[in-house]
Amino acid sequence: MTKKTARRNLVTGVASAPYELWAVIFILVPLAFVAYYAFTDNAFRFTTANITRFFTATSSVTGADGAADEVRTYLVITWRSVKLAVISTIVCLLLGYPLAYIISRSSPRAQKTMMTLIMIPMWMNFLIRTYAWMTILQDTGILNNLLGKLHLGRVHIIGTEAAVVIGMVYDYLPYMILPLYSIMAKMDYRLIEAARDLGCAPMGVLRRVILPLSMPGVVNGVTMVLIPSISTFYISQKLGDGMFFLLGDAIEGQYTANNLHFAAAIAFILMVALLAAMAVMRRLTNKYTYGGAAA
Amino acid sequence: MKKASKIFTALMFVFLFAPIAILLLFSFNEARSLSVFSGFSLKWYKELFRDTETLKTVRNTLVLAVCAAGVSTVMGTAAAVGIDRMRSKYLRSAMDMVTNIPMINPDIITGISMMLMFVFASRLFGFANSLSFITLLIAHITFCLPYVILQVLPKLRQMDKSLPEAAMDLGCTPWGAFWKVELPEIMPAIVTGMIMAFTLSLDDFVISYFTTGTGFQTLPIRIYNMTKKTVTPDMYALATLIFFVILALLLLSNLTDSEDSQKLRAARKAKRAASGRPPRDPRKQRILYACGGSLAVVAVAAAVIFAVTETDNKPQVLNVYNWGEYISDGSEGTLDTVKAFEVWYEEEYGRPVQVNYTTFASNEDMYAKLSFDAVSYDVVIPSDYMIARMIEEDMLLPLDFDNIPNYKYIADNFHGLYYDPEDAYSVPYAYGIVGIIYNANEVDEADAGGWDLMWNDKYAGRILQFNNSRDAFGTAMYRAGLDVNTTDRSAWDAALEDLLAQRSVVRSYVQDEVYNMMESGEAAVAAYYAGDYFTMLDAEAENVDLRFYYPEPTNFYIDAMCIPTCCQNKELAEIFINFMLSEEPAIANAEYTWYASPNTLVYENEDYIDEMGEDAMAILYPDWGDFAEKYNAYAYRNLDGELLDYINSLWETLKIN
Amino acid sequence: MDKIIELKNITKSFDGEVVLDNISLDIYDNEFLTLLGPSGCGKTTTLRLIGGFDTPDSGDVLFMGERINDLPPHKRNVNTVFQRYALFPHLNVFENVAFPLRERKTPRDELEQRVNEMLAMVALKGFEHRSVASLSGGQQQRVAIARALVGKPRVLLLDEPLAALDLKLRKDMQQELKNIQKATGITFVFVTHDQEEALSMSDTIVVMSEGRIQQIGSSQDVYNEPKNAFVADFIGESNIVDGVMLRDKVVSFSGHTFECVDGGFGPSEAVDVVVRPEDVDIVAEDAGMLRGVVTSVTFMGVHYEVIVDIGGFKWMIQTTDYVGVDERIGLYIEPDAIHIMKKSEYSGLYGDYASFSNEFDELADAESEAEE
Q: With contacts defined as CB-CB under 8 Å, which chain B residues touch A245?
C-alpha cells in the first residue's frame, strides 16, 4: 500500500472510528450482556435453566368448552404476540401502501404537507395518544356515543384483539408509510407508462411493476412495524383491558419482579428469533426483488 | 378512482388525527375526565404552567432530544462518510449489520441490554450514579444513530463520486471538498436524519424507562408513572400545545421553503447582479450556515451540560423518589410542598437547596432501580412490605430522630408495626385501605358488601380487577379467608382458581384506567383505594352514582419515608422528612392525594376535617378498633424471591387464559 | 517541445486485477493527446493517475521533471473535465466556474472578469445565474470546460467529455475543443473510445488495450502504419489476412503474390497483412488479383460497403461503383495499399468481416458506455 492510500484510509478510519467504537461498546457489548444474563442464575453461575424455562413452563388453560389444557406458557404468549403483531403489520401495509402511493403521486407541495401531517402525531407522546384511543373506543366512549346518536347501535371494541390492533396500527402506521413513500417518490413514473404501453392492465402494473420496485420499502416498513409491535407492552395494557398478555408484558413483568435473568432470557430468545426472521426475510426479498438489497 | 383515493386519504387522516382531536377537545374540559365533557375551561393550561415538575420534565425531554439528535447526527454523518469509503467489502457489510441491530431489535431489548451493561459497569467501577442523564443520553444516541446513518449513507452512495474529485481537482483539499461539495449534497439527508432522531428521542418511552436514573426524568416516564393515580388533563393541554407549536414550526418552514420565496430569492440575486455588484460567495454563506448550525448545537449541548452539572454542583441537592402524583404539587391553588421546602430551607439555614423530585410507578420498579446500585436517592417512599424487604437486604439507613422532631405527631397506631418493629428506618407518609367502589345506578344495594360483589355474575363484564399480581391475588385470598402472606403454595393455587373463575365476569384488568372507567360508567365495580374513590367522585358522569364500602377483611397499606443506603446527604434527607411532617405540607399532601394521613397534625386539624367533609372523614379514617392488630394481620408482607416467582407464573397463567 | 508529463513504467491494479501493465508515456507541452481504446483498456485509469485521483502501484508520474506520485489533486496544476461533468448542483453557473478562483482567494474584480471571459469563450454569456440542472447537456459540457480552464492549468484532462452528446453537437464540440486548445495553448489529454473523434482532433494518439499501450503516433501514423492487428482493426476498417513475407517488398496472401512497400522481415516470415477497404479497387473478375463473390452491399451515403467472399474470408471494400449481390468480381490492390505487420497476440482475432454488422458495433459501443 502506498503512502497516499494509507493516508486516505486513515482519514476514512477517523471519520467512522467514533461510531465504530460506539457501536462496539453500546450495541454489541450490551447484547453480550443480555446473553450473559440469559445463561446465568442469580449468583452468575452458568445455567440454561432460564432458556429451558421459556420453552417448558406450563400453565393449565381452560378452553371454551370448559376442558382444562396444559399449555406451554411462554409459547402461548409468543404465539399471541406474533399473531397480533403480524395482523397489525398486515393492516399497516394494506393501509399504508395505497396511502404512500397516493401521496407519492400528488403535487410536490401536497406531498410535503401530507408527509408532515403523517409525522406530526409522532411528536406527541405515544402514551398520551394511546390513552386517547382508550376514551374513543371504550363502551361509553366517543365512538359509541357517536354511533348511539346516529342510532347505529353500539360496538364493543375495547378489550378485544381489534382494539389492540387499532392501537398498534395507529402508533406504527407512520413507520410503514415513511419507507414506502421514500421509495415510491423516487420511482420512475415512465416505468408505469411503459408497462401500460406494453399492455398491462392497472392491476397488472401494480403487481408486476410497482410492487416489485417498491419491495425494499415494503421490507423496511414491515420491519419497522413488526419489531415494535411484537414487543409492545403499553398498548396491550391500555387497549386490551389487561386481557392480552404479550411478550413485552412478560419481559416487563419479570423485570419488575426483579427477575432479571429470566427477563434477559426472554429478550435473548426474542432477539435471536427476530434476527433469524429478518435474515430470512431479507434473503427472500433479495432473491425476488429486482435490484436487491433494501437500504 | 380519483375520488375513491381522495376519500381514502381523508379517512386515513381522520384516523391519524382522531386521538389528537380528542386530546385537544378535552384539554379544555372543566372536569378531569377524558370521556365526559362538562364545560369549557382553560384551567388545565393554567395548571400546566404552574406544574413546575412537569415543565421540568418537558425541558429535560427537549434537552435530551436536542443533545441526542445533535450528537447522533454529527457522529452518524461521519460514520456514513467513513463506511461509504471503506474499501473492504467485509468491513462494510459488517458495519451495515451492526448498524441494523438497534433497528431490528425491539426497544425493550435495547433498553434492557443497555441497563444490564450500565448496572454491571457501575458495580465494576463503583459509580454511584451510573444511571443518570449521561446513560439516558448514551441510550438515545445509540438508537438514533442508525436512523441518521441509514438516511445519509444511501445519499452518499447515490452521489456522483466525481463531484468531490472535481472539487479537489479544482484546488480543494480533501477536507475542503467534503465541506464545500459533499456536505451540501448530502445536507437534505442529514437534516432528515436529524429530524428523525429528534422525533424518536422525543417519543421514546421504553428505552428511557430502563436506562433513566437519579434526578433526570423525561416526560414519557412522568406520564407512565402517573399510573398510581391518573393521567392529569394538564398533560392533554401539554399535548395540545406541542401540537400547535409543531404545526407553527412546520408551517413556517413550509413558507420559507416554498417556491415563492425561492423565486423571491432568485429575484433578489438577479437584482444584485444587475446592479453590477459581484455575487456573494454562496459557499461562504453555506459554510457560515454549517458553522452556525454546528455551533448552535454545540452551544445548546454545552448549555445543557452546564445546566445539568450546575444543578449537580450546587452545594445542596436532595434526590427524592416517590410514587407518581403522590405529593401536593401546587396545582389548583394547592401548596407546592417541594418548593415550599426549598424556600423554607434557605430561610432557615441560609443555604439554597435543590430538590430533584422523580417518580416511580410501582414498588418493584423502585426496588429494581435501587437494587442495581446505579442510582442515588436521598429519600424514597415505598410501601410497607417493600420496606421490610429493603431492611432485610440492608438497603435502608437507620434514621436519626433528633433531626426529625416532628415524628412525635405520628399517631400511636403507627408505631411498632411489622415492617419496622423498632421504628428505626421509616416515617409513615400516608396509609390506605382497599375498598370496593360501585355504581349504585347499576348495582343493587343488596349485592354490595363483601368481596363477593367482585365475583357476582349478575355484573359480568362490569367488574374491574387489579392489573398486578399481588393486589389481584389479594382480593381472592381475602375473599376466601386465606392468609395473603402464606408460603403455602396450594393456597396461592386456590386463589388462582378463584381468579380464573372470576375472569369471565371481569371487564378489565386495570391500574389507573380505573378512574376513567368508573367515572364514565364504563364499568360498575372495582376494588381500589379509599382515597381514590373521592378523586373519582369529583369527576363522575351524570348517570353515574359511585358508592364505597370496605369488605372484610381487606388490605391495609402504609407508605413511609425512608433513607436508602445510597443517600448522599443524610442530614438533609432527615430535615426534608421532618418538614413533610410539619402541619402545612402534611395537610397539603393529604388534601391533594386524598389518602389518610398518620399524622395527628393532619387528621385532628379542624380546617382539614371541614375540607374533607364528614363522609370522607368517616371513610378515610374509619374506627377500626386496634389498628395495629388488624394491620399486622392483613397487610402484605415481603415474600421470598422463589415464592414471588411462583406467584408471577400463576399470574401469567391467569393472563393467558 | 518540452515534456510536460512523463509516465514511467507504471503498473496499477485494483483488487488483484491488473489495469495498467507497465506503461510509459511522454506528454509534450501544447499537444492534443488522445488516449484511445475500448472500455477497460486502462485509459481512464491513466487519466486519473495524472489527475492525482489514483496512485500507481509501481512506476513514477513526473510533472515537468518532478515526481508527483503522492501529490494530491488540489496541488497539481492539472484540471479535469469529468465524464458526466461533475458540476456542483448546489451552485449556479457562475459559481461553478468561479469555484477554483474562490479556492485561491482571487480578488473579486479579477474573479469576475475571468469568469466572464471564460463564459464568453464557451458562449454561455447570460447564463450566469442559471442553475446547472436547468442546462442542456451541451451547455453543461461548456460549463465544465470553462470551470476546468478558468484556473489556467498546464494540462487539461478530458474524460470522454463528449460521450453523452448527440452526434451533431459532438461534431461541433470537437471543433470547439480543438479551437480552445489552440487558443489557450494548454496541453489536452483526451480520453475516448471513438476512433473517429480521436483521428480528427489529436496531434498524438495513444492506442491502448488491456492495460498496455499498443501504439503511439500521429493520426496518420496509427491509421496508415498500425503496429498490430488490434490497432489496425480498432482504428478504421481493416481487412487483416495472414500472409507470408517472401522477401523484402514481396508478400503472398490469399493465394496471390503481391508487391508491397514494406521490408525488414525475416525470410518467409509469417505476417499480418492489412488492406484498408477504401484502398481496394473493384475490377472485372478476370482482371483481378483476387476473385470472389459479393455477399452483401450496403449503401452508406458517400460510398457502398461491399462484403466479398474470397476463399471463405470475407473482405470489406468501400467503393463508389455499384455492384450487385452474388456478382463475381475481381479485386485490384496497389502496392502502397498493402501494410505488413509482425504477428502479435492479436493476430487472427480481427479483420474478418464474416460476422460483420453495423448493429454489433453499436451494441458494443452502448455496452462500453454503460460500463463507464
A: 652, 655-656
> Cβ–Cβ of C72/A3 closer than 8 Å?
no
Judge contact between B245 and B29, C-beta under 8 A.
no
Which CATH code of 3.40.50.2300, 3.30.2420.10, 3.30.499.10, 3.40.50.300 fits the domain covering C3-224?
3.40.50.300
Q: What percent of chain B has pLDDT over 90?
A: 31
Residue A49's nearest CA partner among A267, A251, A261, A273 is: A261
Cross-chain residue pair B273–C128, CB shorter than 8 Å: yes
- The whole-chain average pLDDT of chain C stands at 87
CATH number, span B52-250+280-309: 1.10.3720.10
The string of pLDDT tens digits covering residues C202-244 is 999 999 998 999 999 999 999 988 988 889 888 888 888 889 9
In whole angstroms, what is the distance from residue B20 CA to residue C337 CA?
88
Minimal C-alpha gap between B165 and chain C (Å): 7
What are the residues facing B525 on neighbouring strands? B438, B463
What is the rounded distance in angstroms from the CA atom of residue C88 to the CA atom of residue C133? 9
Cβ contact, residue pair A13, B82, below 8 Å = yes
Angle between helices B89-104 and B133-158 (to 10 degrees): 130
Per the CB < 8 A criterion, the answer to whether C79 and C156 are in contact is yes
**Ranges of each domain in chain C:** 3-224, 238-371
Smallest CA–CA distance, residue C196 to chain A, in Å, is: 35
Tell me the chain B residues in contact with residue C102 when contact means C-beta distances shorter than 8 Å: 281, 283
Where in chain B is CATH 3.40.190.10?
A: 317-429+561-632, 432-557+648-656
Beta strand segments in chain C, E:
3-14, 17-28, 32-36, 58-63, 66-67, 78-81, 155-159, 187-192, 204-209, 212-217, 239-247, 250-253, 256-259, 269-275, 280-283, 290-299, 304-310, 313-319, 328-333, 338-342
Closest Cα in chain A, distance from residue C59 (Å): 12
3-state DSSP call for residue C235? Answer: coil
Q: How far B365 CA sits from the closest chain A CA (Å)?
A: 5
- Residue A3 has its nearest CB partner, among C56, C57, C70, at C70
Residue C62 has a pLDDT of 92
Q: Give the ipTM.
A: 0.86
| pLDDT attached to residue C371 | 41
Superfamily of domain C238-371 in CATH is Nucleic acid-binding proteins (2.40.50.140)
Residue of C nearest to A7 (CA): C70
**Which member of A12, A30, A102 has the closest CB to residue B5?**
A102
Asked whether the beta carbons of residue B162 and residue C86 sit closer than 8 angstroms, the reply is yes
Structural domain boundaries, residue A232:
74-288
The CATH H-level superfamily of B432-557+648-656 is Periplasmic binding protein-like II (3.40.190.10)
pTM for this entry: 0.80
- Mean pLDDT calculated for residue range B484-504: 92
- The predicted pLDDT at position C369 comes to 44
What's the one-letter identity of residue B343? V
Mean pLDDT of B563-584: 92
- More reliable by pLDDT, A237 or B145: B145
Cβ-based contacts under 8 A for chains B and C = 85
**Considering chain B, what is the average pLDDT of its residues?**
84
CB C291 within 8 A of CB C310: yes
B264 pLDDT exceeds 60? Answer: no
Give the chain A residue whose CA is nearest to the CA of B6: A102
d(CA C231, CA C218): 13
Q: If DSSP codes are grouped into helix, strand and coil, which group holds residue C298?
A: strand
Q: Which chains touch B (3 or more CB pairs under 8 A)?
A: A, C
CA of A3, closest CA in chain C: separation in Å?
7
Query: How many domains are contained in chain A?
Result: 1
| Interface membership of A120 toward B (CB under 8 Å) | yes
